[in-house]
Amino acid sequence: xxxxxxxxxxxxxxxxxxxxxxxxxxxxxxxxxxxxxxxxxxxxxxxxxxxxxxxxxxxxxxxxxxxxxxxxxxxxxxxxxxxxxxxxxxxxxxxxxxxxxxxxxxxxxxxxxxxxxxxxxxxxxxxxxxxxxxxxxxxxxxxxxxxxxxxxxxxxxxxxxxxxxxxxxxxxxxxxxxxxxxxxxxxxxxxxxxxxxxxxxxxxxxxxxxxxxxxxxxxxxxxxxxxxxxxxxxxxxxxxxxxxxxxxxxxxxxxxxxxxxxxxxxxxxxxxxxxxxxxxxxxxxxxxxxxxxxxxxxxxxxxxxxxxxxxxxxxxxxxxxxxxxxxxxxxxx
Length: 333
Known about the structure:
The protein has helices at 55-67, 98-104, 110-129, 181-184, 192-207, 217-226, 241-250, 261-266, 268-271, 281-292, 295-312, and strands spanning 6-7, 15-23, 28-34, 40-47, 76-81, 85-91, 96-97, 132-133, 142-144, 153-155, 162-163. The chain is an alpha+beta fold. The chain has 2 domains: 6-91, Phosphorylase Kinase, domain 1, CATH 3.30.200.20; 96-331, Orthogonal Bundle (Transferase(Phosphotransferase), domain 1). The strands form 3 sheets. Strands 1-5-6-4-3-2 form a 6-stranded mixed sheet, with helices on one face. It has a 3-stranded antiparallel sheet with strand order 7-9-10. Strand 5 (76-81) and strand 6 (85-91) form a beta hairpin. It starts with 5 loop residues before the first strand and ends in a 21-residue tail after the last helix. Its EC number is 2.7.11.17.
C-alpha cells in the first residue's frame, strides 16, 4: 500500500495527543488517538526546521517502512504533513524494551534467548530479502508488542536503514559496540553487518554483558577489528556448546564467512531443541544492571569517538574523501 503524505493544517484535527512517549535525535514521539475511533498510534513528530539537510534520512526511513510488512517489525500506518511538521503514525507497541522485560521476568533460560533471537532473525531475514539493511540493530531497538508474557518481539527504528540498490553499501553508520569490523575499516559492506549485530545481541542475551567493551574507544574498536572476545567463566559455564557455536558463526571476522540470516535460522540452537532450560536469570540480570545502566549517557560520547575513528581513516562517515561533519552523528542514540 502506497502511503502518500496527507496534507493537514493542524494535526490535532486528526489525532488527539495523549502523552509524550520519547524523543530521538530530531523528533518527538507521542501517544495519539485517532479522532472518531479508539485507535492508538505512536506519532513521530518531526519539525521541518530541523529537517534541513536531513530530508534524505527521513525520506529514506519512509521509503523503507513503506515496503515493509512483517509481524515482528513495527509498521508505518500513515504519513501526514503540516506547514511546520512531518508526522509518521507508527504501530503502537506497548511492551517495553528488551532488557527491561528480561529484568522483570520470574525466570529466564537459554531457550527463551533462542526464541527471542529466532524472532529477530526472521524479521531481519525478511528485510534482507527486500534488499534492506537495518544498520542499527541493538537491544534498545527491540521492543515487545504487548506487556503480556507471550508477547512477540518487534524490530523498530529504521532511521539508519538503507535499501541496498547495488551489492554493497558505503556509509558508515551504527552504534559503537554493535558495529561490524568491515564498518570500522570503511570497507564496502552489506547485509552481514546486521548478522554481526545480532551476534553481539545474542551474546549479551546469554550473559548480560557485551563481547566487546572498553572505557577507551580506540581499544573497543581494536577488539572489534580483531573479533577478540571470550566466553568467560563463570558466566558461560552453564551455556551450551551449541549456543557458543551459533555466536561464533555470527561474530565471524570475515563477512564472507559469516552466517547469513537464513543459515543462522537453520542452526540447531535456533531451529532444533538444543537450547538449555536452566534458569540463568540471576546471573544475566545482575550483569545487565551492571553493564547497561551507564550506556545511555555514554552513547553520545561513543558516537563522537566512532566518527573520530572513521575520520582517522581519511574519510567522512558518508564515505567521502573530505572530512566534514557526518550526518550520522545525531542518529546514533
